[in-house]
Model the fold of this input.
Amino acid sequence: MKDNTMHKSVVEPNAQHLIEIQDIGKDYQEGETTVQAIKQMNFFIDDGEFVSIMGQSGSGKSTLLSILGGLNHPSRGRILLDSLDIYELSSEQRADLRSEYIGVIFQSFQLIPYLTVLENVKLPMSITGRKAKEQDKMARDVLARVGLANKADRLPDKLSGGEQERVAIARAIVNKPPILLADEPTGNLDSTTADEIMNLLKELNAEGQTIIMVTHNPEACKHTARTIQVKDGSCSVN
Amino acid sequence: MSYNFEKYREKREKVLGVKKRGVSFATLASIVSLVIVLGLGIVVVPKSIAYLNTRHLDDAIYKLQDGSPWPPEVISAIQELAGVKSIETDTNSSRIVITFDKSVTGTPDINALFKQRDIETVLLNQVGHAHRKKILEKEAKF
Done:
């Protein structure tokens, strides 16, 4: 059963931003030792922003991304996403939130190798209850948007790295999520292809898509309006 | 871009499980089913009640042997027999239709009355009351 009470999950008058990170912290237990992956972070992201989260390996940026994506419960603090306190929601509501609000581009694409490009893109829509015809149209539209309209029936291993990245982007935005999380989207690409992907992300952002990109590459950060530097579990906003 | 609380209202309501405005498919299907069931009920139930009310009734159609009109006193005497519900006469009173409860009386009792009064009659037909009504309805259409 869904919890229909809105008083705890919706903070209507106080929410000023699309995402608000308030005193977030995350501890891991390793035997007797408690490791603070994230000490304390406070920042916000507005609707339509293109923000990069930059940091070295082990700095806590991937932990932060998984918390932002509703996949990793923080040890303290709270996250308001469209005024919803996402970790106050039930697990079922949080799953719905991920489906409605968040598209994820994974570093290694995570395409299903035995499904065609079109079927891969349609995958996130399978739980939305949309009709098959509508799903097909939306998937083809978004493939056209990323420049892969003529490769809908190919298998992923017949595509280049850049094209596979485009499929991953298409799959992430097909449900029209307000927020796109990109985990090192250019990490596995050569510099020319990486630029193409960054330009595509910038185009999507110009169309109103909010994008949060995790990267360790300072070059990639140049494309974003704001950079959140993560270091030793703390952050600073540039 | 400033954050607009209304922009993602539909998504937020989906997450929170707030009921959608308007009529859902399930509600619409229930309403249609209800209308069909009630409609069928309105058609079927009165017929069933009418059948239950008349299934024990039979009609016996008599005429006098000589074809003359039925004397009113005989009709009154038949009316007083136990189990007789009604008597109809045709336009020139040459034939009568006696409707009776077949669990209470029958044509032997009626025939006995005629014999007692020394009246020679002919039993033209004996049918179920509901069946004769149907025949009359069909004839009326022609």
